[in-house]
Amino acid sequence: MKIVIAPDSFKGSISSMDAALSIERGILHAYPHAETVLVPVADGGEGTMENLVAATGGHKTKVHVINPLKKPIEAEFGVLGDQQTCIIEIAAASGLNLVSIGERNPLKASTYGTGQLIKAALDEGYRNFILALGGSATNDGGAGMLQALGVELKNSAGQELDVGGGELGQLQQLSIKNFDPRIEESQFIIASDVENPFVGPTGATYVFGPQKGATEAMVKVLDANLLHFANKIEEKMGVRLHDSPGAGAAGGIGGAFQAFFPSTLRRGVDVVMEYTKLDEQLENADLVITGEGQVDFQTAYGKTPMGVAQSAKAKNIPTIILAGSFEGKIDSLYQYGVIGVYSVMNKSMTLEQAMKDASLLLEKTAEQVCRTYFFNRGGDCS
Question: Which of 123, 132, 263, 362 could be 48's S-S partner, Cβ–Cβ 3.0 to 4.6 Å?
Answer without folding.
Answer: 132
